[in-house]
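Hi Y.,

Following your request, here is the sequence exactly as I used it, all 379 residues.
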Amino acid sequence: MFTPMPRKRVPSAFACNVMFSIVFYCLCMQTSFARSPVGGSVDDSGATPARVSTDEIMRQIQKKFRGNAKKYQALARKIEKRVQEALAETEYSCGTGDGDKRPLSEHPYLKFVEELSVAAMAEGGKKKNSDETQALLKKYPWDNVLELVTGLQDGSDRVIPDHENGFINLGAPPEPAPGFPDLSINHYLYGFDEILSWKYRIKQGRKMVFLGRERKSEKPVMEEELPPWEAIRVYLDGYNPKVPLYAIPWLTHLLHSGLMEERRTETGALSRMDEMMAFLDSKWNGFHYENTYTRKPEALVQPVHALFTEKEGFVYQFPDAKPLAMSGDIPFLSLRTYQEYGELFLNRKADVRSRPIIISLTVDTRSSNPRTIKSNGYS
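Below is the corresponding structure, written out as tokens. Let me know if you'd prefer a different format.
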């Protein structure tokens, strides 16, 4: 199975240091963190304080803001303003020794990020799916029922994860809550060669609902900005927010779409591997957790392909996710999906109802409504 390109951190050290200095200054102005025992002290000479880890700063901000979304938004905007000013005012040497100096905003790295971002935004502005995508959606439609709900229709031989309408409860996030590079606000789908939001086709009201997607569903929607708490984290790590938002997904698209073309058959059809990835990208797991930055419930969805191939991703950072991964509940594939996979790619016909048994199924005690269910399960 194809493994996604690793997300490496590659900005120049100079650009990172400039961005971090600006961010740290903003944080010192917004909080008293710079003079705390953890953050270190700023002496009278104005020397730059020793660098503190991003996680530690995010932990301190989280304690300071106490879920106040407006404070995160204000800080993110202040940081963005100072970064833009610094990029315009700062110069870098583009040669050896005393070579020519140019504005940092013209740095090749930043230019490359901007080019990738513009291309991604242009693609995101299109309203119609390509003919090939429509054909794939017809062949592999996204069910509006998440895999866990589908699986429970056939029973289970183990404890059911605590969930709401198929959205698995991840429990409390670690402190601070994980973010980039583990969190992808915009996903790249290897099977459909598309970029979409981490909340695509989710309706989050009194209940969490996944709407699925059919052939004529609208083209995937990308997120146009990072949540403010995530933008702060990205700046602290020395990145332009467009890097995780647009540049990484679009660069992944450029690399992978070229490989897809090379793998096509003589008739122009997709390779078996790309068909498999499209199939796995059509099966979805949903999750929810309490966002400690906003103190509100957060729902997200991921295709099982991403959950198979990114074992260090956002979902796996939650303490409660580790036993679920060990038990085979993350990623969760229903028996019907296994059957469908066998028929499509292994030429193996199977009936998930061929070996019915009666099992006693006890719901996870973390659930708000623990109970014992008698159901048909299939081994």
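The first strand starts at residue 91 and ends at 93.

Thanks again,
Q.
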